[in-house]
Design brief:
This protein is α/β, with parallel strands linked by helices. Helices cover 37% and strands 18% of the residues. The chain is built from eleven helices and ten strands. The strands form two sheets. The chain has an eight-stranded mixed beta sheet with strand order 3-2-1-4-5-8-9-10, with helices on both faces. The chain has a two-stranded antiparallel ribbon with strand order 6-7. Strand 9, helix 9 and strand 10 form a beta-alpha-beta unit. The N and C termini lie far apart (39 Å). 37% of the residues are buried. The chain binds NADP nicotinamide-adenine-dinucleotide phosphate. The site of NADP nicotinamide-adenine-dinucleotide phosphate (NAP) has 24 residues, from helix 1 and helix 5.
């Protein structure tokens, strides 16, 4: 499958590497190919610069958001939540229409420092904003409630833990499920919450996720839903 990953940060790179390992053709989308290829700065978490990373992953193509979206059969939104709409606008409506977008971004607002707040929140979500702005795009919100390493390697954590999924299009959710399963998610641990308005719930898990990260002093944990 031809997959476009919109976003060249740590998460986009982790997803891209995994999908490449799974033999998909992977294109990373960015604002400026030249600037990103020449980026020698480590990110805020100390991850290697894009330039260094790409030298080790040169079979992953880098294109503009629009060129990546144009070629893709399926897309991932791995851009910052506050800029996702701008990134998708740059990708271009005609390149998105009819395709599945796996949206794992969180609309975290760091403008007032740590911990960040959510914007939108309660009565709206980023998943819904994307769906409203691009009505022909099939948005599936998933994977946003855990650390990137676990998204692509759930077996890293001992025991069962869950991933949530929501979206308006059943066929798109089935596609997203297949992708999740190929990355190691057991079918019974994927919880379908319903339509895209449920993105409010999963995005609103971020405030507790961030506090757990602080309390547990590790990002390698996840939510496990237990029922009788
Ligand atoms: P990030 O730094 O949040 O975003 C990087 C991407 O955003 C880059 O591709 C960048 O474009 C693009 N971007 C920045 N400003 C832009 C603008 N004004 N217009 C359009 N695009 C712009 O990357 P990240 O840390 O990998 O996180 C990606 C997403 O995953 C976030 O929404 C985050 O909340 C979510 N998430 C992260 C984790 C985690 O483990 N860190 C877990 C769950 C969810 P360029 O390529 O041009 O620089």
């Amino acid at each position: 499958m031809k997959v476009a990953i919109l976003g060249t940060g740590m998460v986009g790179r982790v997803i891209a590497t995994k999908l490449r390992m799974l033999n998909h053709q992977v294109i990373l989308g960015t604002r400026s190919v030249e600037n990103t290829l020449n980026n020698e700065k480590k990110d805020a978490y100390g991850n290697v610069s894009f330039k260094e990373w790409h030298l080790q992953n040169s079979d992953i193509e880098l294109k503009t958001f629009a060129d990546a979206a144009y070629e893709a059969e399926i897309l991932f939104n791995c851009t910052g939540g506050g800029v996702s709409l701008a990134a998708l606008e740059a990708a271009g409506k005609s390149n998105l229409d009819g395709k599945v977008l796996i949206d794992l971004a969180n609309p975290l607002d760091f403008s007032n420092g740590m911990p960040p707040t959510l914007n939108p929140v309660n009565t709206d979500s980023l998943g819904e904003q994307i769906q409203r702005k691009f009505p022909m795009l099939k948005v599936v919100k998933t994977l946003n409630t855990m650390n990137a390493g676990l998204m692509v390697d759930p077996g890293k954590l001992k025991g069962d833990h869950n991933v949530f999924i929501c979206g308006n299009d059943e066929a798109a959710k089935a596609t997203a499920r297949e992708v999740l399963q190929s990355m190691g998610w057991k079918p019974n641990l994927i919880i379908d919450l319903g339509d895209i308005t449920n993105a409010r719930g999963t995005e609103m898990l971020l405030p507790i996720w961030l506090r757990l990260w602080n309390a547990l002093e590790t990002a390698e944990f996840n939510f496990h839903i237990q029922k009788n």
